[in-house]
Model the fold of this input.
Amino acid sequence: MNHLGHDEFVLTYYGEPGLDDERRAHLDACDSCRGELTTLAALLDRVTPVEVPEPEAGYEARVWDRLQWRLHVARPSGRVRRRAEVRPTFWLAAAATIAIAFFAGVLWKSANRRADEPASVVATNTTSTARPIESAKTPEPNRILLVIVGEHIDQSERVLVELTNLTPEGSTDISGTRDRAQELLASNRLYRTTATTRGEEDVATLLDELEPVLLQLAHAPSEVSADELRRMQQRVESKGLVFKLRVVRDGVNRESSTTLSPSTSI
Amino acid sequence: METDHELIERVRGGGDDDAFRLLVERHSRAVYRSAYRITGNSADADDVVQETFLRAYRALERFDARAAFTTWIHRIAINCSLDLIDSRKRRDGRVNDGEDLTAIASTAASPDRVVHGIEMQRAVALAMERLSGNERTAFVLRHFEGMPLEEIGKVLGTQLNATKNTVFRAVKKLREQLQPFTGSLI
Done:
């Protein structure tokens, strides 16, 4: 009788039906087939499930935050109750609050960083071995990342400013802005992931906030109604995104030019 | 606490955002885990979660109330994961073709390290990446989730024989890819 084939070994390993009594009897009696099954089992037993990292606390809220505006776009007209119209003053107030809170955070962090600097300088001057350790704290990939991200943030800011400067009247052609958003979207995700990996939290957080806005813009039609345009503008303004982009861009430019300066890299 | 079906009715009836938010909050972690097992990384799993709930929202009118929402949403998640893998392969070509599994095997210092260490995990992850979307999903569902072949067929929308062949192909490819390790396994 013929030996069992690959497919039959797989079925047997997983305990799936498929082997008739005759084939089972052969497997029991044949050393070669039993050996082959053992080899396969030894391999598959070691293919263990991928460990799934548990999402952080508040993951569900973050999912919903990113999702809800997309539902608004996806929503078939008339199916869903409309949200109450919110007065522009509310958005202005919200934007101002967010911007102030964000700016305060940046200033606080910047002050803390400056407070730490003298200790680093002392460390580099006291022993010769301390120098390479200090310079290693700013790895080369971070400098490159910051330079590239600075350019990306600059372009994103221009796109958002362009959007918020449009006048919501009748039907507006936003195809140019949309096309640029599409280009930026692909790189945004890459930079966000890289920034997270490299520990650039400010940049990662900003790009995370920027992404759904770019996504919405990238998937917008060529022409939008005044209401749609107003909604998109309110989304940008309510998050204070343009302001945040400017603050982080300035910080990134400062940091990248500092880290690239010869005096600090030696 | 309202059941999933009650929440779905609220969304269907009046487009109740809050009801859909509750569904998202209830199921997003489980969807994330499914997506992660297939895509293999958090960024992609996050994207799949977004796309899954968006598709579910759009298709909610067609949801069969006799079915469990959990099963339905997981099927959508698996399809989204497959779409993502396929589109990425079309865009980038095959993943990690440059990496040599033999090289990974040879870097392992001893058989014990191969068996228990990260080298094997890495090799498995690479080998999994080289499977097609359907093969990877079928293998994950059969091997990790213990799902019967018939059920897998329902998820993938394939007949039993086609499903079997997908699993057979996946195992064969994994076996070939992990060949350098087999000597140290027995």
